[in-house]
Each structure stands twice: as C-alpha cells, then as structure tokens.
Design brief:
Belongs to the 4-hydroxybenzoyl-CoA thioesterase family. The chain has 133 residues and is an alpha+beta fold. The protein has a single domain, classed as Hotdog Thioesterase (Thiol Ester Dehydrase, Chain A). It has 3 helices and 5 strands.
Length: 133
Amino acid sequence: MREVHLPIVVRSTEIDVNGHVNNAKYLEYLEWSREEWYEQAGLTYDAFLQMGIQTVTVNININYRKECTQGDCLDVKTTPEKVGRTSFVFYQEMTNQKGEVCAEAWVTSVTMDEKTRKAREVPATLRGLFPAE
C-alpha cells in the first residue's frame, strides 16, 4: 500500500479569530489521515496490541503553505516514506479543491513495546508497507 487520501471539509468550528483554520487543527487533520492509512493497511489499534506494540509520534516537521478557510474541501494524502530500526516516517500533503498545497509534513513515529514502554524494532508487518532502502 503506497498512499491514502482522506477528504476533509473545513467546518466553522475549525476557524480561528484570523478567519482561517488554526495551525493546531492542521496537525489534527494529518493525524486523522495517518489513522486512515493504518486502518486501510489493516493495522488497527487491536492489531498493534496483538503485536505487543504501540506507536508514538516523536517529531512533526510541518510547512504551512496556504491558509484554509471555512468550506474548503481538502485532500490529505499520507505516504509511507522511510523506515528505520525502531522508527518510520510518513510524508503528508494537504491540498485544497484548487489543487494548491496548503501544508506538507514529515511525521516520525517510533514503535514502542506495550509493556516496557521502550522503543522496539518495527514489526515486519508494518515494515513491509514502507519502501525498501
């Protein structure tokens, strides 16, 4: 599985005093899209628990390119970019209905042992969904 697209319509409750989507809401949109990627990959929360792991976001590098406003129809694309021993990176891109890039982000997560709460090697099931280096 390469990429997942999640459509989002900007609601009035997501607008800040500047009349556009608050910067923190972009992060929420990105999270929703990553969760959709996991779901489509068959990696539900229960699947992770069966593997004895959880995932933890440890870094988000985001570039805000264009403001989003109420009623905008956004597409949030999530693409697996690279995988290391205990971590993996998604590239995410948010575009509006005109095809303009509103934000792009690189999100690094670590697989954590459910019991010890320490970093653990990325399981083969998840590793196989990322491009080989």
